[in-house]
Amino acid sequence: MRLRRLIVLLIFAALRLQGQEGSEWDYELQGYLKYFGAYGKVNDAFFDPNISANLELQSFDQQLHNRFDFKLYHGAWSMGIGMRNRLFNGSQLKSGDLFLDILDADPGLVDLSMLYWRNDEVVLHTIIDRLWFQYQGEKFGLRLGRQRINWGINTIWNPNDILNQYNFFDFDYEERPGSDALRLQYFPSFTSTWELAIAPAEQIKESTAALLYKNTQFSYDFQIIGAFYRNNISLGGGWAGNIWQLGFKGEANYYWGLGQAQSSIIATGKAIDEYNNFVFSTALDYVFSNGLYISASYLLNAEQAFTGIGEFNSFNQGVVLSPKNPFPFAHTIALNSNFAFSPIFNGSLTFMYAPENQNLILFPSLSYSLGTNLDLLLAAQVFLTENARENQELQWLSNNFFVRLKWSF
Fold it and tell me: How many helices (H) and strands (E) does the chain have?
Protein backbone atom coordinates (compact mmCIF):
# COMPACT_ATOMS: atom_id res chain seq x y z
CA MET A 1 0.00 0.00 0.00
CA ARG A 2 2.87 2.39 0.78
CA LEU A 3 4.36 1.73 -2.65
CA ARG A 4 1.06 2.59 -4.38
CA ARG A 5 0.82 5.84 -2.40
CA LEU A 6 4.41 6.69 -3.35
CA ILE A 7 3.63 6.20 -7.06
CA VAL A 8 0.62 8.53 -6.86
CA LEU A 9 2.67 11.14 -5.01
CA LEU A 10 5.41 10.97 -7.66
CA ILE A 11 2.89 11.61 -10.44
CA PHE A 12 1.34 14.62 -8.68
CA ALA A 13 4.78 15.96 -7.79
CA ALA A 14 5.78 15.78 -11.46
CA LEU A 15 2.64 17.65 -12.55
CA ARG A 16 3.34 20.33 -9.96
CA LEU A 17 6.96 20.71 -11.06
CA GLN A 18 5.93 20.98 -14.71
CA GLY A 19 3.59 23.81 -13.82
CA GLN A 20 6.30 25.89 -12.15
CA GLU A 21 7.64 28.67 -14.33
CA GLY A 22 11.22 28.09 -15.42
CA SER A 23 11.28 24.52 -14.14
CA GLU A 24 13.65 22.15 -15.94
CA TRP A 25 11.35 19.21 -15.31
CA ASP A 26 9.32 17.74 -18.15
CA TYR A 27 6.91 14.84 -18.42
CA GLU A 28 4.88 12.69 -20.83
CA LEU A 29 1.55 11.03 -20.16
CA GLN A 30 -0.02 8.73 -22.74
CA GLY A 31 -2.11 5.60 -22.88
CA TYR A 32 -5.22 4.03 -24.33
CA LEU A 33 -8.63 2.56 -23.61
CA LYS A 34 -9.65 -0.72 -25.30
CA TYR A 35 -12.59 -3.01 -25.62
CA PHE A 36 -11.39 -6.57 -26.31
CA GLY A 37 -13.75 -9.45 -27.07
CA ALA A 38 -12.77 -13.07 -27.69
CA TYR A 39 -14.83 -16.08 -28.80
CA GLY A 40 -13.34 -19.57 -28.76
CA LYS A 41 -14.52 -23.04 -29.71
CA VAL A 42 -12.78 -26.40 -29.18
CA ASN A 43 -13.42 -29.45 -31.37
CA ASP A 44 -15.14 -32.11 -29.25
CA ALA A 45 -13.89 -34.84 -31.64
CA PHE A 46 -10.57 -34.77 -29.76
CA PHE A 47 -12.17 -35.94 -26.51
CA ASP A 48 -14.03 -38.97 -25.25
CA PRO A 49 -17.79 -38.20 -25.35
CA ASN A 50 -18.07 -38.91 -21.63
CA ILE A 51 -15.39 -36.31 -20.97
CA SER A 52 -16.44 -33.67 -23.51
CA ALA A 53 -19.97 -33.65 -22.03
CA ASN A 54 -18.48 -32.09 -18.90
CA LEU A 55 -16.17 -29.64 -20.67
CA GLU A 56 -16.76 -26.02 -21.61
CA LEU A 57 -15.99 -26.23 -25.33
CA GLN A 58 -17.17 -22.72 -26.15
CA SER A 59 -16.10 -19.50 -24.50
CA PHE A 60 -16.83 -15.81 -24.76
CA ASP A 61 -14.68 -13.35 -22.87
CA GLN A 62 -14.45 -9.60 -22.89
CA GLN A 63 -12.48 -6.96 -21.11
CA LEU A 64 -12.11 -3.22 -20.79
CA HIS A 65 -8.42 -2.38 -20.80
CA ASN A 66 -6.99 0.98 -19.78
CA ARG A 67 -3.28 1.78 -19.81
CA PHE A 68 -1.25 4.73 -18.54
CA ASP A 69 2.41 5.36 -19.33
CA PHE A 70 3.98 8.25 -17.43
CA LYS A 71 7.56 9.51 -17.87
CA LEU A 72 9.36 12.26 -15.99
CA TYR A 73 12.58 13.92 -17.25
CA HIS A 74 15.18 16.15 -15.64
CA GLY A 75 18.42 16.48 -17.61
CA ALA A 76 20.22 13.13 -17.59
CA TRP A 77 17.73 11.70 -15.08
CA SER A 78 14.34 10.18 -15.83
CA MET A 79 11.76 7.80 -14.42
CA GLY A 80 8.80 5.90 -15.83
CA ILE A 81 5.61 4.25 -14.59
CA GLY A 82 3.32 2.07 -16.68
CA MET A 83 0.19 0.26 -15.53
CA ARG A 84 -2.53 -1.97 -16.98
CA ASN A 85 -6.04 -1.64 -15.56
CA ARG A 86 -8.41 -4.36 -16.79
CA LEU A 87 -12.03 -5.26 -16.11
CA PHE A 88 -12.76 -8.90 -17.03
CA ASN A 89 -16.06 -10.59 -17.80
CA GLY A 90 -16.91 -13.91 -19.39
CA SER A 91 -16.21 -17.63 -19.45
CA GLN A 92 -12.74 -17.42 -17.95
CA LEU A 93 -14.26 -16.41 -14.62
CA LYS A 94 -15.93 -19.82 -14.39
CA SER A 95 -12.56 -21.40 -13.60
CA GLY A 96 -12.68 -19.52 -10.30
CA ASP A 97 -9.49 -19.32 -8.29
CA LEU A 98 -7.39 -20.84 -11.10
CA PHE A 99 -7.97 -17.82 -13.35
CA LEU A 100 -7.52 -15.39 -10.45
CA ASP A 101 -4.28 -17.02 -9.31
CA ILE A 102 -2.82 -16.76 -12.83
CA LEU A 103 -4.06 -13.20 -13.28
CA ASP A 104 -2.80 -11.94 -9.92
CA ALA A 105 0.59 -13.69 -10.07
CA ASP A 106 3.46 -11.20 -10.34
CA PRO A 107 6.69 -12.89 -11.52
CA GLY A 108 8.82 -9.95 -10.41
CA LEU A 109 10.82 -9.57 -7.23
CA VAL A 110 8.30 -6.94 -6.01
CA ASP A 111 4.58 -7.72 -6.11
CA LEU A 112 2.93 -4.90 -8.06
CA SER A 113 -0.23 -6.83 -8.93
CA MET A 114 -3.49 -5.65 -7.35
CA LEU A 115 -6.81 -7.52 -7.51
CA TYR A 116 -9.29 -4.85 -6.44
CA TRP A 117 -12.67 -6.45 -6.75
CA ARG A 118 -14.27 -9.71 -7.86
CA ASN A 119 -17.61 -11.43 -8.02
CA ASP A 120 -19.24 -14.02 -10.28
CA GLU A 121 -19.57 -11.53 -13.15
CA VAL A 122 -16.52 -9.26 -13.20
CA VAL A 123 -12.95 -8.98 -11.96
CA LEU A 124 -11.03 -5.69 -11.70
CA HIS A 125 -7.24 -5.96 -11.78
CA THR A 126 -4.23 -3.63 -12.04
CA ILE A 127 -0.59 -4.47 -12.54
CA ILE A 128 2.30 -2.01 -12.71
CA ASP A 129 4.53 -3.45 -15.45
CA ARG A 130 6.93 -0.50 -15.65
CA LEU A 131 8.52 1.33 -12.72
CA TRP A 132 12.09 2.46 -13.36
CA PHE A 133 14.62 5.18 -12.61
CA GLN A 134 17.35 6.03 -15.11
CA TYR A 135 20.55 7.99 -15.55
CA GLN A 136 21.73 8.41 -19.16
CA GLY A 137 25.12 9.93 -19.83
CA GLU A 138 27.12 10.21 -23.02
CA LYS A 139 28.90 6.88 -22.60
CA PHE A 140 27.18 5.34 -19.60
CA GLY A 141 23.58 4.49 -18.74
CA LEU A 142 21.93 2.99 -15.65
CA ARG A 143 18.32 1.93 -15.23
CA LEU A 144 16.90 0.35 -12.08
CA GLY A 145 13.42 -1.11 -11.60
CA ARG A 146 10.73 -2.86 -13.60
CA GLN A 147 11.66 -2.43 -17.24
CA ARG A 148 11.76 -4.19 -20.58
CA ILE A 149 15.23 -5.39 -21.61
CA ASN A 150 14.90 -6.40 -25.23
CA TRP A 151 17.95 -8.24 -26.60
CA GLY A 152 16.07 -10.24 -29.22
CA ILE A 153 16.64 -9.70 -32.93
CA ASN A 154 14.00 -11.78 -34.70
CA THR A 155 10.32 -10.92 -34.91
CA ILE A 156 8.68 -14.14 -33.65
CA TRP A 157 11.20 -16.20 -31.63
CA ASN A 158 13.99 -14.63 -29.58
CA PRO A 159 16.47 -17.04 -27.91
CA ASN A 160 18.64 -14.01 -27.03
CA ASP A 161 15.83 -12.44 -24.96
CA ILE A 162 17.16 -13.88 -21.71
CA LEU A 163 15.22 -11.46 -19.50
CA ASN A 164 12.01 -10.66 -21.37
CA GLN A 165 10.46 -13.41 -23.45
CA TYR A 166 7.00 -12.74 -24.86
CA ASN A 167 4.10 -14.68 -26.36
CA PHE A 168 3.68 -13.95 -30.09
CA PHE A 169 -0.01 -14.88 -29.86
CA ASP A 170 -0.68 -12.40 -27.04
CA PHE A 171 -1.03 -9.61 -29.62
CA ASP A 172 -3.10 -7.39 -27.33
CA TYR A 173 -0.08 -6.77 -25.07
CA GLU A 174 2.01 -4.55 -27.34
CA GLU A 175 4.26 -3.30 -24.55
CA ARG A 176 5.24 -6.87 -23.52
CA PRO A 177 6.29 -7.92 -20.00
CA GLY A 178 9.08 -6.35 -17.98
CA SER A 179 11.60 -7.56 -15.39
CA ASP A 180 12.66 -6.22 -12.01
CA ALA A 181 16.29 -5.61 -12.90
CA LEU A 182 19.38 -3.43 -12.84
CA ARG A 183 20.66 -2.57 -16.32
CA LEU A 184 24.07 -0.99 -16.92
CA GLN A 185 25.13 0.17 -20.40
CA TYR A 186 28.53 1.36 -21.61
CA PHE A 187 29.13 2.79 -25.10
CA PRO A 188 32.91 2.76 -25.80
CA SER A 189 32.36 3.77 -29.43
CA PHE A 190 29.64 4.66 -31.90
CA THR A 191 29.31 1.04 -33.06
CA SER A 192 29.87 -0.95 -29.87
CA THR A 193 27.95 -1.50 -26.63
CA TRP A 194 28.45 -3.40 -23.39
CA GLU A 195 25.40 -4.25 -21.24
CA LEU A 196 25.04 -5.93 -17.87
CA ALA A 197 21.58 -6.91 -16.62
CA ILE A 198 20.82 -8.45 -13.22
CA ALA A 199 17.30 -9.62 -12.30
CA PRO A 200 17.36 -10.93 -8.70
CA ALA A 201 14.87 -13.41 -7.28
CA GLU A 202 14.05 -14.54 -3.76
CA GLN A 203 16.24 -17.60 -4.36
CA ILE A 204 19.65 -17.01 -5.92
CA LYS A 205 19.31 -19.97 -8.27
CA GLU A 206 16.12 -18.45 -9.72
CA SER A 207 17.89 -15.17 -10.49
CA THR A 208 19.26 -14.04 -13.85
CA ALA A 209 22.47 -12.18 -14.64
CA ALA A 210 23.56 -11.58 -18.24
CA LEU A 211 26.35 -9.77 -20.08
CA LEU A 212 25.95 -8.63 -23.70
CA TYR A 213 28.45 -7.19 -26.17
CA LYS A 214 27.32 -5.65 -29.49
CA ASN A 215 29.36 -4.42 -32.42
CA THR A 216 29.05 -3.67 -36.13
CA GLN A 217 31.40 -5.31 -38.61
CA PHE A 218 31.17 -5.88 -42.38
CA SER A 219 27.75 -4.13 -42.49
CA TYR A 220 26.36 -6.63 -39.95
CA ASP A 221 25.31 -6.08 -36.35
CA PHE A 222 26.64 -8.84 -34.08
CA GLN A 223 26.06 -9.59 -30.42
CA ILE A 224 27.41 -12.13 -27.91
CA ILE A 225 25.66 -13.05 -24.64
CA GLY A 226 26.84 -14.92 -21.57
CA ALA A 227 24.36 -15.50 -18.75
CA PHE A 228 23.32 -17.27 -15.60
CA TYR A 229 19.63 -17.94 -16.19
CA ARG A 230 17.57 -19.61 -13.43
CA ASN A 231 20.18 -22.23 -12.50
CA ASN A 232 21.39 -22.55 -16.08
CA ILE A 233 24.59 -21.36 -17.70
CA SER A 234 23.93 -19.93 -21.15
CA LEU A 235 26.12 -18.76 -24.03
CA GLY A 236 24.75 -17.33 -27.26
CA GLY A 237 24.69 -14.59 -29.82
CA GLY A 238 22.99 -13.17 -32.86
CA TRP A 239 23.36 -11.14 -36.04
CA ALA A 240 21.40 -8.85 -38.33
CA GLY A 241 22.29 -7.75 -41.83
CA ASN A 242 21.41 -8.26 -45.48
CA ILE A 243 21.92 -10.80 -48.25
CA TRP A 244 21.42 -8.76 -51.41
CA GLN A 245 17.96 -7.20 -50.89
CA LEU A 246 16.91 -9.70 -48.20
CA GLY A 247 17.09 -8.93 -44.50
CA PHE A 248 18.95 -11.76 -42.75
CA LYS A 249 18.75 -12.26 -38.98
CA GLY A 250 19.48 -15.00 -36.50
CA GLU A 251 20.12 -15.76 -32.85
CA ALA A 252 20.97 -18.80 -30.76
CA ASN A 253 21.64 -19.84 -27.16
CA TYR A 254 22.91 -23.02 -25.57
CA TYR A 255 21.82 -23.82 -22.02
CA TRP A 256 23.61 -26.05 -19.54
CA GLY A 257 21.20 -27.03 -16.76
CA LEU A 258 22.79 -27.16 -13.31
CA GLY A 259 20.04 -29.30 -11.77
CA GLN A 260 20.11 -33.08 -11.33
CA ALA A 261 18.71 -34.40 -14.61
CA GLN A 262 17.93 -38.08 -15.00
CA SER A 263 17.88 -37.88 -18.78
CA SER A 264 18.60 -35.44 -21.59
CA ILE A 265 15.03 -35.91 -22.84
CA ILE A 266 12.44 -33.46 -21.58
CA ALA A 267 9.71 -35.25 -19.68
CA THR A 268 6.44 -33.66 -18.68
CA GLY A 269 7.03 -31.64 -15.55
CA LYS A 270 10.83 -31.68 -15.73
CA ALA A 271 12.31 -28.60 -14.08
CA ILE A 272 13.86 -25.96 -16.31
CA ASP A 273 17.35 -26.56 -14.85
CA GLU A 274 17.34 -30.34 -15.35
CA TYR A 275 18.35 -30.60 -18.98
CA ASN A 276 20.59 -29.01 -21.59
CA ASN A 277 19.11 -27.35 -24.65
CA PHE A 278 20.07 -25.56 -27.85
CA VAL A 279 17.65 -22.94 -29.20
CA PHE A 280 18.20 -21.35 -32.61
CA SER A 281 16.09 -19.09 -34.79
CA THR A 282 16.71 -17.37 -38.10
CA ALA A 283 14.68 -15.29 -40.53
CA LEU A 284 14.72 -13.77 -44.00
CA ASP A 285 12.49 -10.81 -44.87
CA TYR A 286 11.81 -8.57 -47.84
CA VAL A 287 9.79 -5.45 -48.60
CA PHE A 288 8.35 -5.11 -52.12
CA SER A 289 8.03 -1.79 -53.89
CA ASN A 290 4.26 -1.75 -53.22
CA GLY A 291 4.86 -2.01 -49.47
CA LEU A 292 4.14 -5.74 -49.08
CA TYR A 293 6.33 -7.17 -46.32
CA ILE A 294 7.06 -10.91 -46.16
CA SER A 295 9.25 -12.96 -43.84
CA ALA A 296 10.18 -16.60 -43.38
CA SER A 297 11.36 -17.81 -39.98
CA TYR A 298 12.65 -21.09 -38.56
CA LEU A 299 12.98 -22.21 -34.94
CA LEU A 300 14.98 -25.16 -33.61
CA ASN A 301 14.12 -26.09 -30.02
CA ALA A 302 16.43 -29.10 -29.88
CA GLU A 303 15.30 -30.95 -26.75
CA GLN A 304 11.61 -30.18 -26.94
CA ALA A 305 9.12 -32.90 -27.84
CA PHE A 306 5.41 -32.36 -28.56
CA THR A 307 3.53 -34.32 -25.90
CA GLY A 308 -0.07 -33.75 -27.00
CA ILE A 309 -2.79 -31.21 -27.49
CA GLY A 310 -2.28 -29.89 -23.96
CA GLU A 311 0.82 -28.11 -25.32
CA PHE A 312 -1.50 -25.70 -27.11
CA ASN A 313 -2.27 -24.16 -23.72
CA SER A 314 1.05 -22.33 -24.06
CA PHE A 315 -0.53 -20.13 -26.74
CA ASN A 316 -3.12 -18.71 -24.33
CA GLN A 317 -3.26 -14.97 -23.82
CA GLY A 318 -0.95 -13.99 -21.00
CA VAL A 319 1.15 -17.19 -20.98
CA VAL A 320 4.88 -16.55 -21.46
CA LEU A 321 7.34 -19.39 -21.97
CA SER A 322 11.06 -19.23 -21.22
CA PRO A 323 13.98 -18.43 -23.55
CA LYS A 324 15.18 -21.99 -22.93
CA ASN A 325 11.85 -23.36 -24.20
CA PRO A 326 10.19 -20.63 -26.32
CA PHE A 327 7.83 -22.91 -28.28
CA PRO A 328 6.40 -26.41 -27.71
CA PHE A 329 7.80 -27.99 -30.91
CA ALA A 330 11.29 -29.08 -31.92
CA HIS A 331 11.06 -27.61 -35.44
CA THR A 332 8.74 -24.81 -36.52
CA ILE A 333 8.51 -22.78 -39.72
CA ALA A 334 6.63 -19.47 -39.84
CA LEU A 335 5.61 -17.39 -42.85
CA ASN A 336 4.42 -13.87 -42.19
CA SER A 337 3.11 -11.08 -44.41
CA ASN A 338 1.87 -7.53 -43.84
CA PHE A 339 0.29 -5.21 -46.37
CA ALA A 340 -1.23 -1.73 -46.16
CA PHE A 341 -4.23 -1.69 -48.50
CA SER A 342 -4.54 2.03 -47.79
CA PRO A 343 -3.15 4.48 -45.22
CA ILE A 344 -5.97 3.48 -42.83
CA PHE A 345 -6.47 -0.23 -43.70
CA ASN A 346 -3.87 -2.88 -42.96
CA GLY A 347 -3.81 -6.69 -43.05
CA SER A 348 -1.46 -9.42 -41.87
CA LEU A 349 -1.28 -13.21 -42.07
CA THR A 350 0.98 -15.61 -40.17
CA PHE A 351 1.21 -19.30 -41.03
CA MET A 352 3.11 -21.74 -38.79
CA TYR A 353 3.90 -25.39 -39.39
CA ALA A 354 5.54 -27.94 -37.08
CA PRO A 355 5.97 -31.45 -38.57
CA GLU A 356 5.41 -33.19 -35.23
CA ASN A 357 1.77 -34.32 -35.41
CA GLN A 358 1.33 -32.03 -38.46
CA ASN A 359 0.65 -28.97 -36.32
CA LEU A 360 -0.69 -25.98 -38.27
CA ILE A 361 -1.49 -22.51 -36.99
CA LEU A 362 -3.18 -19.70 -38.92
CA PHE A 363 -3.19 -16.16 -37.53
CA PRO A 364 -4.83 -13.53 -39.80
CA SER A 365 -5.71 -9.98 -38.74
CA LEU A 366 -7.22 -6.82 -40.21
CA SER A 367 -6.95 -3.32 -38.75
CA TYR A 368 -8.82 -0.19 -39.77
CA SER A 369 -8.52 3.39 -38.57
CA LEU A 370 -11.98 4.75 -37.72
CA GLY A 371 -10.70 8.22 -36.94
CA THR A 372 -8.02 10.12 -35.10
CA ASN A 373 -6.55 7.76 -32.45
CA LEU A 374 -9.44 5.28 -32.90
CA ASP A 375 -8.69 1.84 -34.41
CA LEU A 376 -10.62 -1.37 -35.01
CA LEU A 377 -8.88 -4.75 -35.20
CA LEU A 378 -10.29 -8.16 -36.17
CA ALA A 379 -8.17 -11.28 -35.73
CA ALA A 380 -8.40 -15.06 -35.62
CA GLN A 381 -6.17 -17.89 -34.41
CA VAL A 382 -6.89 -21.35 -35.83
CA PHE A 383 -5.02 -24.42 -34.53
CA LEU A 384 -4.95 -27.74 -36.39
CA THR A 385 -3.27 -31.01 -35.43
CA GLU A 386 -3.59 -34.78 -35.85
CA ASN A 387 -6.47 -36.39 -33.99
CA ALA A 388 -5.30 -39.57 -32.28
CA ARG A 389 -8.92 -40.62 -31.78
CA GLU A 390 -9.59 -40.62 -35.53
CA ASN A 391 -6.60 -42.36 -37.12
CA GLN A 392 -4.30 -39.33 -36.86
CA GLU A 393 -6.51 -37.37 -39.24
CA LEU A 394 -5.61 -33.69 -39.48
CA GLN A 395 -8.44 -31.67 -37.92
CA TRP A 396 -9.01 -28.25 -36.44
CA LEU A 397 -8.48 -28.32 -32.69
CA SER A 398 -9.67 -24.83 -31.79
CA ASN A 399 -10.85 -21.63 -33.40
CA ASN A 400 -10.47 -18.27 -31.69
CA PHE A 401 -11.88 -14.97 -32.95
CA PHE A 402 -11.08 -11.52 -31.58
CA VAL A 403 -12.38 -7.98 -31.93
CA ARG A 404 -10.68 -4.93 -30.46
CA LEU A 405 -11.63 -1.26 -30.42
CA LYS A 406 -8.80 0.99 -29.26
CA TRP A 407 -8.75 4.70 -28.45
CA SER A 408 -5.30 6.16 -27.81
CA PHE A 409 -4.43 9.39 -26.04
Answer: 3, 19
Which ranges constitute the DSSP H helices of 193-309? none
Three-state DSSP state, 161: coil
Cα–Cα distance measured from residue 375 to residue 387, given in angstroms and rounded to the nearest whole number: 38
- Picking from 130, 65, 63, 132, the residue whose alpha carbon sits closest to that of residue 91 is 63
List Cα–Cα distances, 321 to 123, 177, 345, 350, in angstroms: 25, 12, 32, 20
CATH superfamily of 148-408: Porin (2.40.160.10)
Count of C-beta atoms within a 10 Å radius of residue 345: 12
Q: Within 10 Å of residue 382's Cβ, how many Cβ atoms?
A: 15
8 Å CB contact between 123 and 117: yes
Instruction: Judge contact between 396 and 384, C-beta under 8 A.
Output: yes
CA distance 96 to 101: 9
Q: Which residue blocks in 119-200 are alpha helix, DSSP H?
A: none
Contact 349, 355 (CB under 8 A): no
Residue 298's pLDDT band (boundaries 50, 70, 90)? Answer: very high
Rounded to whole angstroms, the Cα distance separating 293 from 312 reads 28
pLDDT of 265 reads 44
Distances (CA, A) of 331 to 91, 240, 327, 386: 33, 22, 9, 16
Summarised one tens digit per residue, pLDDT across range 63-103 is 999 999 999 999 999 999 999 999 999 998 888 788 888 88
Pairing of strands 345-354, 246-257: unpaired
Three-state secondary structure call for residue 18: helix
Amino acid identity at 57? L
pLDDT at residue 286, rounded to an integer: 97
